[in-house]
Amino acid sequence: MDQWKVTDKLNVNIGLRYDLTFMPIYGNSPSDNYYVGDMDFRNGTYILAHNAPSCLQTNAAPCIPGGVLPANVVTTPLGGGAIFHTDYNDIQPRVGMVYQLFPNTVLRAGYGRFFDNWAAITQTAQNYEGTWPSLDQLGASNINAVTSGAPTTTAEDPLNQGSGPPVTGPTPFTQSTWFADPYLKRPYADQWNFGVQQQLSSKDVLTVNYVGSVGRRLDIGGAYNVAMAAGGNVGCPSYVANPNDFNCGAPFPYIGATAYDRSQGKSTYNALQVSLNGRQQHGLTYLISYTWSKSLDLGCSGFYGVEGCSIQNPYNLQADKGPSATDLPQIFSAAWVYTLPFGKGGKFSSGSRVVNALIGGWNLNGILSFNSGTAFDAGSGKDQAETGNYNYGNGYGYERANLVGSPYPSSKSPAEWINVSSFQLPALNTFGDLGRDSLRSDWYKNLDLSIFRQFPITERFRMEFRFETFNLTNTPVWAVPVTSMEAPNFGAVTSTANTARQLQFGLKLYF
Q1: Three-class SS of residue 494?
Q2: What's this model's pTM, rounded to 2 decimal places?
Q3: Quick check: bond before 62 cis, omega within 30?
Q4: DSSP states of 26-45 as a string?
Q5: How far are the Cα atoms of 364, 470, 492 from residue 441, in angstroms, in the given order?
Q6: Tally of CB atoms within 10 A around 283
Q7: pLDDT for 151-209, tens place per residue?
Q8: Which of helix, strand or coil describes residue 320?
Q9: What is the rounded distance in angstroms from the CA atom of residue 362 to the CA atom of residue 451?
Q10: How confident is the model at residue 237 (pLDDT cuts 50, 70, 90)?
Q11: In sequence order, what are the residues at sequence separation of 6 or more whose Cβ sits closer than 8 angstroms to the Cβ of residue 296?
């Protein structure tokens, strides 16, 4: 990077960063989970890190039934047990400038590209732990689905392993675990800003910024290789009857639905950020900030989806575009430190040294905060669209509700935060039309206050007394209501998003 002073009023910073992050290899030896594999839904193959011996020799997993790889199973072309391909294109330019427009006015602008080289990278490499031809990690999803008839799985054999030695199954394509695209890319964000900073007085500065960001190659998880359209798996023969056609509506019918991470996510963030900062004016130092913003993304927010994935159709991610789980359109905060004007040297001083010693030297601190509520939506735990999708951690499943009326009652309360009669279960073989994260929980409001004073003991020692209050007004902030349509308390708030008022005293010795 370099800094260039173009003129007395204009400075420019330029830079270029390059990162090379090698994808880890899982397993180092036959005794260290060496025989594992990963799905590749680009071509419908299963990639083995290493070929295993025949089950005729070992009679136990990990092994290859009959000693011959099944159709559509290959060993990694990378060699050395590597399955994930390393990305060599993480080039990140940076540029910034500052220009003094007037003696008390400064313009600032900047742009940079930033790669997240370590977001869950180790976890991703571990997610195919114990997979076929090993049996070290077993899992099953959508067991005894709500829309099915008689139970298909029993408590005695929940993973359908039967009895006898733990021998590897005939193919890897009935596994359900957390696979990922072997060409998974590192996510990145292009970030930019432009703003003006104005000195209003010798102690007050006003800053106004436009801040923007675009995220690309973000992680999209959830179920994949489900039916490509609602109702696409209706009428499929069972796996027992036809092993090559048990998921007939999917791109690869011989492979069951499974979790699959891929680099297809996108996000945008745009914000107006305003702050007013004052320092040591009549004993007061303060910072007032306001942000008006919008954050949008596809399907999930955060690596592995901090909100849980609610993707209805993994082949039409644009239909799942909506506010991010972290979207807070309005944010306001005011923080201050105020030296109370009492005692010696203050505006209100007594003639008594004793009184001044008692009433002087106190500081009052406070933080006042307001912001918009958390974005959420509502839906069903049923595979109503009959695509083979399943619950992936968002509390209700993938199927969002149909909205048939006003989402909110005339008077919201914790007992009825949303108008449950306006949410209906979609018809069979259809997706819900409720927008992802189109609802809002209670807005956040909070006041923290503290008062403290230092008492000198000697030149080296001093004691500080503090009295602190959190949520001084004891105002509850209601959490996101129950979002599952099958829950008996659907639409009701069952907890708060903040804690009740807390008071605490403290003594601190400085030496």
Answers
A1: coil
A2: 0.86
A3: yes
A4: S-SSTTSS---EEEETTTTE
A5: 32, 22, 11
A6: 14
A7: 767 777 777 777 766 778 899 998 888 899 999 988 999 999 999 999 999 999 999 99
A8: helix
A9: 7
A10: low
A11: 267, 268, 269, 321, 322, 323, 324, 327
Written as six digits, the tokens of 247 are 């998921």
Both tokens of residue 366? 């406070």
Per-residue tokens: 6:
């173009």
Q: CA-to-CA distance for 511 and 509, rounded, in angstroms?
A: 7
CA 77 to chain centre: 33
Give CA–CA dist 289/274, Å, rounded: 6
At 506 the three-state DSSP class reads strand
**What does the block give as tokens for 171?**
């193919």
The alpha carbon dihedral of 61, 62, 67, 72 has a sign of positive
Q: Name the token pair of 450.
A: 């503290």
> Is the peptide bond preceding residue 133 cis, with omega within 30 degrees of 0?
yes
Residues 6 or more apart in contact with residue 157 via CB below 8 angstroms = none
Asked if 259 contacts 312 with a C-beta cutoff of 8 angstroms, the reply is no
- Side-chain half-sphere CA neighbours of 181 within 13 A: 22
Q: Pick from 466, 487, 455, 481: which is nearest to 358 by CA?
A: 455
**pLDDT at 44 (0 to 100):** 96
pLDDT recorded at residue 9: 96
Question: How far is Cα 54 from Cα 57, in angstroms, rounded to an integer?
Answer: 5
Which carries the bigger pLDDT value, residue 305 or residue 288?
288
Judge whether 210 and 194 are in contact, CB under 8 Å: yes
pLDDT value at position 146? 56
End-to-end CA distance of the chain: 43
Distance CA 200, CA 507 (A): 39
Q: Is the pLDDT of residue 124 over 50?
A: yes
Amino acid making up residue 384: Q
Q: Over 90: is that where the pLDDT of 17 sits?
A: yes
- Give the gyration radius of the chain's Cα atoms: 30
- Spatial separation of the C-alpha atoms in residues 88 and 94, rounded to whole Å: 19
SS (HEC) of 102-165 = ECCEEEEEEEEEEECCCCCHHHHHHCCCCCCCCCCCCCCCCCCCCCCCCCCCCCCCCCCCCCCC
> Which two three-digit tokens encode residue 412?
């919201």
pLDDT digits (tens, 9 = 90+) for 344-362: 666 777 766 666 666 777 8
Residue 241 clears pLDDT 80, i.e. is over it: no
